Fold:
Amino acid sequence: MSVRAISRKSGRVMWEVRWRDSGRNRSRVFDRKRDAENFDLEVRRRAQIGELDLVQAGRETPAEFAQEWWGHHAVTLEEKTQLVYADLWDRHVLPRIGQLPLRRITPELVEKYMSELRAAGVPDPTIRKTLALIQTVLQRAVVWRRISSNPVAAVKKPSQSRRVAISPPSPARVEAMRADLLARSRIAYATLVCILAYAGLRPGEALALRWSDIRERTILVERAVSLGRVKATKTRRIRAVRILAALAEDIARLRSVAGDPLPEQLLFPRRDGTPMKDDDYRNWKNRVYNPAARRAGLASVRPYDLRHAFVSLMLAEGRSVVDVAAQAGHAPTMTLDTYAHVMADLDGADDRSADAAIAAARDSAVRVSYARVHEKEMSDESFYEKAPRLRGFHEEPSCGLEPQTPSLPWRCSTN
Structure:
C-alpha cells in the first residue's frame, strides 16, 4: 500500500493510492493528498481486520443488486408479499435512488429520501414499508459483503401508531346484514359474515376453514387463503376461537344445507370445491357484500373490519386483554394499541354477555328483514340469481384479504 503523486496532461497533480487484493493490483485517485492519506489508512485498517474486499465494494446500484436479491431471497416469500414489494420498489425506490451506487447511500441520504417521499404526498405507513423493504435488501448486501453497514438501520422510521380510531360494527348492524342476506337465500354468505364478526377471523382465515376445523365449542384456525392458495395464517400460529351460541346456530344451518359435508371440504368453496381466488373474492365483495353492507348501514366497513365487532364483544364481556388477543390472533400490545379507546368507553360499565347482545339484535333484525326485500330484486336476472344459492360461492377473495395490501396486475421490474 502506498500513496504517490501523479501528474495529469493538464499539469494538475493528483494523488493515487495503490494496494493488492486477492492477487490483483488496485488503485484509486484523489484530488487532495489528505483524502488519499485517509483512504490509505482505511485500506490498511481493512486489511488488518480481514475486510479488504469491502474497499472496492458498493459500486453496483440498488437496481442491479435487487436483481440478484430477488432471485435468491425474494422468491422464498409469500406471493402476496412479493406483489407488495414489487409495487413499493417500482413506484418509490427505483425512480429516486435506484441508480445510485450502494456505497453512496448513507443515513443522511436516506433521511433526505424520506423527506422527498413525504413532500410527494406518500403516506407515512407506505414510507415505513418502503424503508423496511430497502433495509431488508441492504441487509442482504451487508451479508454478501457488498457494503460494510446498513445505512437504513440508523434512520428513525415514521411511527406505526394507528391514526384513525376504529369503530366496531354493532351486533344490530351485523344482524341487519345477516338478515338481509338470509332473506335473499344467501345462507353461505350470511354465515361468512357471522364468522368474521362473531369469531374474529380474518377473511383469508375464514375462507380456508374446513369442516374438520369446526369443533364442538371452538373453531380451529391454522390456515388462510391467499391468492387462491392455502397457506399458514398471517401470524403463522394456530389458535382456537370460542364459538358463540348465535354462530353455532348459523354453522349448523350451513352444515345442514351442505348435506353432511366431508371433514376435508371447505365451508366456503368455489363451485368446484377449491379455495376462492383473487377475482372471485373481489366480485363477491363488490356485488354481494358491499350492497348488503350499505343496506345495513355499514357502507364504510370492509369485510376485514367485521372482526373488530368480535373483539369489542369480548372486551364488553370483561375478558382480559391477553385472552382477547389470543382469540383474535394478534399480540396483547396490538390489542391495547388498537382498542384502547374501546376499553375506555367500557370502563365502569357492567359486563355484557356477547351471546345476549347478539340474541337481542337477532330477534329485532329478523322481525323487519323480510319486509325489506323487494319483489323486483328477487325476480331480476341478476348476479344473485345466477350464482348458486346454497352450496358455497360462485366468487372468491382477492388481495384485499389483509389491510393495505394492493392487488397488482403486473410484475416487479426485478423479477
Notes: Residues 373-415 have pLDDT under 50 and may be disordered. The chain is about 50% helix and 10% strand.
